[in-house]
Amino acid sequence: MRYFACRNIKFEKNVLYQRRIIMVTMMKYLRIWAAVTIAFLVCVGGAENAMASEEITEEQLRRHVEELFLEPPKFVGKWNEEIRYRISGTNNERVQLAAKEVMDYFSSLSGISVKNAGGGEANFVLVLTSSIGESAKFPEIELLFRSLDETIDVFHRRMENADRSNNSFRKINYTEEDNISSFYIIDNPHKKNKIPLRNYFFHTLKDGFVNAYRSNEIEPSIYNRNYPNSGFFAFDVNHLPAVDEAFFKAIYSSSIQSNSPRKSAQFDIIRQVLTEIRRKER
Q1: Does residue 133 sit within a domain?
Q2: DSSP secondary structure letter of residue 227
Q3: pLDDT digits (tens, 9 = 90+) for 141-188
Q4: Element (H or E) spanning 159, and its range?
């Protein structure tokens, strides 16, 4: 019995020693993991500041704006009246709240009053659907999106093409003074479910305020061609990069008119964007 008792004591000591080794090893790796995690969060949190601090040259900005203005229309085009928006296709409160946050944010940049249309008439509409092609068959969708000079067949074909290519389908109407009078967009968010919700609305709704193309001249930007799968927008954000904010503010400044030709307006826009970026850097 004494022999077995002795062996049990030795066994317990070995177990305790092994446990101590395991605990020390675990604590070591936990400290490493914590350090890596903190470093990662610091990098993510500071990514915008680091990228913003990289000095953007006037030449870069010129090429950036030129690319953004590469496609029609030839005039600037912006809102000059209150926006009454509606997000159709869902009653999900989280979705509606995210859309409201983004619309309010764009309102703060542009100075244009924005409110939810509720049951009233809307001049800014996002339709969320699981099939753009199938939605084209509904009369209310045709009324919003079909151009007056195109046949039903052409309209259906355009909607189906957008569906197949995973693109949204949009329509912007202008007044005689080249102000935006209405903006309609239909999209299938189910094909973009890896994008943070708020980022999705930044990307989808931005064109309703500024009709611009894509550019990779300055990164990060919501207009980058690789958006929204990497970089700044790989994480949930509550604002746009500094260059985009400055661009929106410049477009909606009092010195830029809706009917201003883009080619001549871009010099003033570049000047204002550079001034705003330098101000934020100080």
Answers
A1: yes
A2: T
A3: 999 999 999 999 999 999 999 999 989 999 999 999 999 999 999 999
A4: helix 152-164
Kindly give the pairing relationship between strand 78-79 and strand 114-116: unpaired
* 106 vs 47: which has the higher pLDDT: 106
Residues 243 and 178 in one domain: no
Task: Tell whether 43 is covered by a domain.
Answer: no
Question: Are 176 and 98 contained in the same domain?
Answer: yes
Helices (H), 174-261: 197-205, 242-251
Please give the full DSSP string across 41-105, using - where no structure is assigned.
Answer: HHHHHHHHHHHHHSPPPHHHHHHHHHHHTSSSPSB--EE-S-EEEEEES---HHHHHHHHHHHHH
Burial of residue 233, with CB atoms counted within 10 A of its CB: 0-12 exposed, 13-18 middle, 19 or more buried: buried
Residue 53 counted as domain residue: no
d(CA 267, CA 264): 6
